[in-house]
């Protein structure tokens, strides 16, 4: 039950206090005070009076002063004050109202009037108090709504700025890894979002498996959990099946196939979709027990949309780049095969043009030519003898020495090649230059135009040495292969007559590299007893696979093949680990695939020459075909989704190469003690 209102009666006369108290005590709680000072003390403590009946004429502090003090104090300002006084002149009442009184009751007191005035003032005070409370409540609500609006406005601003920054980042040439890190950093900068700045990106491969293509803030053991998983078998997979954003405040530690489980945290799994196309999922780690803020899930959905847009755009760009690389590689292969076609009529070998072009590149590098020119020389050199297509077989394949007339006819192949290779394309123009001038001699005694010295283009001078070195050291229909020492001595003796002395010095300087190239691309069966000088393989301690002596199987040429395979595997690894553009990965993988075929065929010829059983050879060939098929599959995977190239590819390459060299090759190629 609510207590009755408290009325404070103030008068310096005891009888007046008794009379007023007696009139009101049945209806109200009564307090009395006989001075202004006592009034102030009682009014300033709890419970405060609901109404004060105040005499004006008192010793010390009079009623006017007391009223002024009470009204000046915020704690007592709203207490209604009614003057009870014998001062009834109009100016007295005016002064009373001026200092804050709410009513004026003259003495002698009329009891009914006093009771009515007290009741009216208390009712009015209660009404005003209720209105004040309602007003304060409304002010608080408005203030709270304003704060909420400001918070929401700030969050909308933060979201817009973050999405704008993410969208701008998506327009830059970033890899998925770089874009993931930048996105997580942008989200982490939003105070109210409270993310862990850790996450991962999964995309589908050709087999409908989610593959981890980018991560940030994860340990290796955590990354391996989701290297590859089937759709639907984890939180991200569930998000993709339902095609909706999923949030868990905490993932159980025993949750299978979930990168969040071992972390003991929660997070978002965001499907990356665009129309009917599903690219994969984005996982963003949140602190354990995180409670999503209003609009947070919508914001995360917008982040996923930005990621989907990036993936779509970058996939289109990367596929276009890969297509361009493939077109370039096909063009290069057509050029090489055109050179092979000319050589095939002469020597029935397809590897002369490969060796000669790589010799030319090595010599150009030793001359400190820029890398672009070195590469262009390697691509153009295979067409150096394309003009032989126009020379009769009776001359090309004649086992003995040519007559003067036949030699004059043979010389025409340079002019025929130049006519075949007319064009403005830089590669074709350089190929024409090489075809026309690689038989010119430093002293002017060459053909077809008798150019001398530096009037002969550098490309022609380089290819002249490269062509002669390969011609001397490889068997031809009309001659046996010369020993390397004799070929080198002959070339060095022709310096300043047939060859540019500077090119000959570069040739001698890079001879170990040339011998490695010769070993890699042999036409005939490998001699297991042939020894090679130590070659600089450009490998270091930081290489992914470092060649060491435990990889050696005791056959120098096969060891060189294996070194070269490892070199290209390292190139693939470097391209992936350094987030190089996907075409760089595709180039390295294509080169590895090309050389793998050459190595496997040479190795299989050696196995047959060593007299191994047909079943052993077939088993080894089956392993070779399996690896070739896998490389082809990896290349197709990159074409399907350029961002898949990653951990799975690298693990397979390293595992297969090391296992094949240390086990399979060592077992079948190890020579008997008497043959070693």
From TrEMBL:
Bilayer-spanning residue ranges: none
Location of the Response regulatory domain: 6-122
A Pfam family assignment: Response_reg
Keywords recorded for this protein, A-Z: Coiled coil, Hydrolase, Iron, Metal-binding, Phosphoprotein
Biological processes per GO annotation: phosphorelay signal transduction system
Residue ranges annotated for the HD-GYP domain, each copy included: 327-523
GO MF term list: metal ion binding; phosphoric diester hydrolase activity
InterPro entries: CheY-like_superfamily, Cyclic_di-GMP/3'3'-cGAMP_PDE, GAF-like_dom_sf, HD/PDEase_dom, HD_GYP_dom, Hemerythrin-like, Hemerythrin-like_sf, Hemerythrin_metal-bd
Location of 4-aspartylphosphate modifications: 55
Family annotation (CDD domains): HDc, Hemerythrin, REC_PA4781-like
Coiled-coil residue spans: 132-159
Family classification: Belongs to the hemerythrin family.
NCBIfam families on file: bact_hemeryth, hemeryth_dom
Protein's UniProt name: Response regulator receiver modulated metal dependent phosphohydrolase
Organism: Thiorhodococcus drewsii AZ1
């Amino acid at each position: 039950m609510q207590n009755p209102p408290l009325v404070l009666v103030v008068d310096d006369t005891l009888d007046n206090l008794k009379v007023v108290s007696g009139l009101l005590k049945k209806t109200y709680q009564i307090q009395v005070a006989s001075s202004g000072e006592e009034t102030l003390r009682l009014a300033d403590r709890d419970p405060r009076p609901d109404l004060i009946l105040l005499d004006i004429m008192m010793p010390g502090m009079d009623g006017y002063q007391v009223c002024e003090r009470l009204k000046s104090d915020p704690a007592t300002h709203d207490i209604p004050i009614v003057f009870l006084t014998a001062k009834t002149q109009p100016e007295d009442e005016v002064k009373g109202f001026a200092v804050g009184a709410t009513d004026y009751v003259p003495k002698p007191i009329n009891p009914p009037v006093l009771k009515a005035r007290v009741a009216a003032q208390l009712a009015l005070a209660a009404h005003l108090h209720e209105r004040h409370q309602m007003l304060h409540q409304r002010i608080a609500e408005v203030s709270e709504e304003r704060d909420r609006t400001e918070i929401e406005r700030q969050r909308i601003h933060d979201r817009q700025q973050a999405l704008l920054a993410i969208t701008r980042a998506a327009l830059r040439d970033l890899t998925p890894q770089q874009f993931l890190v930048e996105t997580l950093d942008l989200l982490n900068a939003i105070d109210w979002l409270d993310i862990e700045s850790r996450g991962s990106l999964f995309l589908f491969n050709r087999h409908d498996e989610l593959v981890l293509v980018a991560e940030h803030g994860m340990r290796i053991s955590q990354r391996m959990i989701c290297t590859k998983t089937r759709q639907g078998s984890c939180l991200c997979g569930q998000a993709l099946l339902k095609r909706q954003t999923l949030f868990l405040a905490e993932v159980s530690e025993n949750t299978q196939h979930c990168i969040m489980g071992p972390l003991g945290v929660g997070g978002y799994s965001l499907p990356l979709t665009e129309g009917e196309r599903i690219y994969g999922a984005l996982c963003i780690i949140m602190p354990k027990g995180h409670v999503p803020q209003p609009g947070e899930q919508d914001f995360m959905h917008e982040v996923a949309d930005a990621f989907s847009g990036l993936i779509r755009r970058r996939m289109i760009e990367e596929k276009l780049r890969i297509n361009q690389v493939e077109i370039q590689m096909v063009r290069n292969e057509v050029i090489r095969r055109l050179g092979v076609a000319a050589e095939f009529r002469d020597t029935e070998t397809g590897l002369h043009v490969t060796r000669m072009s790589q010799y030319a590149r090595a010599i150009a590098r030793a001359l400190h030519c820029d890398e672009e020119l070195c590469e262009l020389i390697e691509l153009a050199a295979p067409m150096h003898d394309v003009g032989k297509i126009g020379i009769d077989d009776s001359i090309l394949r004649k086992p003995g020495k040519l007559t003067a007339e036949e030699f004059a006819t043979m010389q025409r192949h340079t002019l025929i090649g130049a006519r075949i290779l007319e064009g403005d394309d830089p590669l074709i123009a350089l190929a024409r230059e090489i075809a026309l001038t690689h038989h010119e001699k430093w002293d002017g005694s060459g053909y077809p135009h008798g150019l001398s010295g530096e009037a002969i283009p550098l490309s022609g001078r380089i290819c002249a040495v490269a062509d002669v070195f390969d011609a001397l050291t490889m068997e031809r229909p009309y001659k046996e292969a010369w020993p390397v020492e004799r070929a080198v001595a002959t070339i060095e003796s022709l310096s300043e007559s047939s060859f540019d002395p500077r090119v000959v010095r570069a040739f001698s300087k890079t001879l170990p590299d040339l011998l490695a190239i010769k070993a890699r691309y042999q036409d005939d069966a490998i001699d297991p007893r042939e020894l090679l000088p130590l070659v600089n393989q450009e490998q270091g301690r930081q290489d992914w696979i470092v060649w060491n002596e435990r990889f050696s199987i005791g056959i120098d040429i096969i060891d060189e093949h294996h070194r070269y395979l490892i070199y290209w595997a390292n190139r693939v690894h470097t391209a992936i680990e350094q987030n190089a553009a996907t075409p760089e990965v595709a180039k390295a993988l294509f080169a590895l695939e090309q050389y793998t075929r050459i190595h496997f065929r040479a190795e299989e010829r050696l196995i047959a020459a060593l007299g191994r059983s047909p079943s052993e050879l077939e088993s080894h060939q089956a392993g070779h075909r399996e690896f070739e098929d896998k490389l082809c599959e990896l290349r197709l995977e990159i074409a399907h989704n350029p961002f898949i190239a990653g951990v799975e590819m690298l693990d397979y390459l390293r595992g297969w190469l090391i296992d094949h060299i240390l086990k399979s090759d060592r077992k079948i190629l190890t020579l008997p003690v008497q043959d070693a």
